């Protein structure tokens, strides 16, 4: 696996003017708010991000299927596009960029 792998689900036209990050932290407040906004703005998932810097764990989905930990990018449609970054974990490493 590459240090960071991005799986694009569809090509997104334009650029988002706003990025809202909602990753787990104390109380998961930011994550919960970002996930609520994704539902309210009916944002669609455009990418999945996988990294070797995430904890070595899997997530068990409600249907019983295991998947790797990941972060996701959702983009809302409309006059002003808003990008949302949500996910399972923050990086376990302070390293920036590729090795």
Descriptive report:
The protein is 12% helix and 35% strand. It has one domain. It is built from one helix and seven strands, in the order E-E-H-E-E-E-E-E. A hairpin with a 5-residue loop joins strand 4 and strand 5. With 99 residues, it is mainly β. The model has no long low-confidence stretch (mean pLDDT 87). The two termini are 13 Å apart. The strands form two sheets. A five-stranded mixed sheet has the order 1-3-6-7-2, with helices on one face.
Give a brief rundown of this model.
This protein has 99 residues and is mainly beta.
- Would you list the SSEs in sequence order as H and E? EEHEEEEE
> Structural class given helices, strands, pairing?
mainly beta
Strand content: 35-45%
The tally of domains stands at 1
Strand order of the largest sheet: 1-3-6-7-2
* Helix fraction bin: 10-25%
* Total beta-strand segments: 7
Task: State Rg.
Answer: 14 Å
Poorly predicted ranges: none
Query: Biggest sheet: strands, sense, closure?
Result: 5 strands, mixed
Ends distance: 13 Å
- On the 0-100 scale, what is the average pLDDT? 87
- The DSSP helix count reads 1
Task: Tell me, briefly, the overall form.
Answer: globular
Please render the helix and strand layout as text.
Layout: E1 4-8, E2 18-22, H1 29-40, E3 44-51, E4 58-60, E5 66-68, E6 71-75, E7 82-87
């Amino acid at each position: 696996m590459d240090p960071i792998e991005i799986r694009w689900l569809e090509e997104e036209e334009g650029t988002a003017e706003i990025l809202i990050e909602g990753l787990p932290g104390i109380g998961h407040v930011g994550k919960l708010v970002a996930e609520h906004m994704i539902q309210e703005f009916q944002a669609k998932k455009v990418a999945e991000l996988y990294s070797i810097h995430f904890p070595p764990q899997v997530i068990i989905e409600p249907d019983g299927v295991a998947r790797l930990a990941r972060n996701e990018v959702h983009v809302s449609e409309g006059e002003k596009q808003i990008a949302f970054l949500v996910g399972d974990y923050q990086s376990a490493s302070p390293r920036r960029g590729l090795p």
